[in-house]
Write a structure and sequence with these properties.
The protein is an alpha+beta fold. Helices cover about 45% and strands about 15% of the residues. The protein contains 20 helices and 21 strands. A 7-stranded antiparallel β-sheet has the order 10-11-19-15-14-13-17, with no helix packed on it. α4 packs across α16 and α14 runs parallel beside α18. The two termini are about 25 Å apart.
Length: about 625
Amino acid sequence: MKDYKQLAMEIVKHIGGKENIISLTHCVTRLRFQLKDESKADDEILKNMDGVVTVMKSGGQYQVVIGNHVPMVYADVCEVAQIHAGDHTDQPKVKKKPFDMLVDTVSGIFQPILSVLSAAGMMKGLNALCLAMGWYSAGSGADVLMTTIGDAMFMFLPVILGYTSAIKFGLKPFVGLVIGAALCYPAIQASTLAGAGEPLYTLFTGSIFESPVYLTLFNIPIITMDYTSTVIPVILICYLASKVEKGFNKIIPDLLKFFFVPMFTLLISLVIGFILIGPIATYGSNIIASGIMQVRSFSPMIAGALVGGLWQILVVFGLHWGIIPIYINNIATLGFDNVMLPFFGGSFATTAVVVAMMIKTKDKKLKQLCIPASISGFFGVTEPAIYGILLPKKKPFMLSCIAAALVGGFYGLFNLREFAMGGLGIFGFTTLIDPVTNSFDNMYVGIIGAVAAMILGFVFTMLFWKDDTKEVVVEASVKPTELLNKEIILAPIKGVVLPLSKVEDCAFSQGILGKGLAIEPEKGEVVSPVNGTITTLFPTYHAIGITSDSGIEVLIHVGMDTVQLEGKYFHPCIKQGDQVHAGQTLLTFEMDQIKNAGYSLLTPVVITNTADYLDVMETGLENKEEFLTIIR
């Protein structure tokens, strides 16, 4: 076995020494450090170190990408840094910084639904376009159908996020789904209850916390709100439920767990959710709204800057609901609103930031996400851009908020007003025309601000955002006469062959770990693609490293994030160090169980020592008999 002690010593040295390490875990390809101070790590030296593929930073983790021999490097690093070896989980046990934890959690929860979220946003924009062009009228069958398709995703977002949040927190997925459905239940929404009659009583009358009470639980007031389209309440309740579920799993006898664990989990988490978590969100909204009104009383420009700059943050936390009633009341009583409207430039700033990122990034997957996100953002639907692109990258999100704040201040200074509740994005301009005077002056202010928001967002991103994607340089192909030797790698799994760009993990999709292909399995069996030796069998069995007799290193990674299953549903037929032959069964896995647990089965298969060969040809996309062709 190769000695990685020298490499381990260099890694520990250049991440700031063993005293800078809080904890260390590893997955199948990466060392995952929690560092006290990431600035002490020398990124460039580590990236250029022989034996290190690249360095990545995500969600508070400092990740050193090694390849499929990472267990050996991990063992030596643990020895050098005097860290206890034996923790092979894919997630660190220590607490992350609050902002990193928030970003990692929210982006992880939204990642599985980004494509559908983008599609729904585009449908809303398309419907607004059709109405504006007069292709069909408001209230027509086409309008109702298109609105239903576009709005369903957003209206019942807590239901969908309940499912993905449960997967993120280790809660049973259908418990999370029921939590989301309960939040959307009509009898719980404040607007529905308000229409049912007079409240039982009102709490905190005359203060910013004034709350009508329509329901009580054993005389405990339930302060209700409309949870449809919200994000943070369902995430917090699912997090609480995950802790409750684990607690009851420990104390309830196995014979009774099937019924009583989910029952008590739902009961406790939702009661606390409706009595405590919901009111916190409501009061938070009221505090924000009161603060904005106080600021506006002495400086509309500063108030506009606050609304514009904070709007996207308020939406993320569900705190924007405190301003919306003021907006509706202003239009109903005054005929216009100028309090909430400074947010108008935010969607244009967001769109421009996404476009700039699309131009700058080398990440093919990110480019693909930017296209629908920018289209829906142009029509005023920014959720796909915020949750799928800006928040995970952090700095672009901040840049979009800064641009929106500057334009919000401009709107506040020039008293931008909206005279009717109408479309978003470009379709909001018509609502800025004064219906009394028919003057376009107010709309011109809106257009100038929107253009300024796009210019600022684009320029800020081009100047201050650095794409951290490692560009993979492919050497020019050799002439056919020079192809003296080639070796065929067979497909290890029966299924649909796809390019690596379809894989969600950028270390695979960008080719950082080597060239290869991905497979969407049709059968839960992994066979050896070569004659060789099992050099790595990960303890959770979800990944296998094989070195062929000729030295080709093949990594097979079954599914995405399946390390979190800790070996459940995987059944190895071999052990590390075994000699295997092409076509021999290495592993079986229970496809339905893994899918039901919420994990993707898309399996990347890569040649981790790609650089040792003239080329790795992805022949499996066109030839069923050959999967990869190695050119020596």
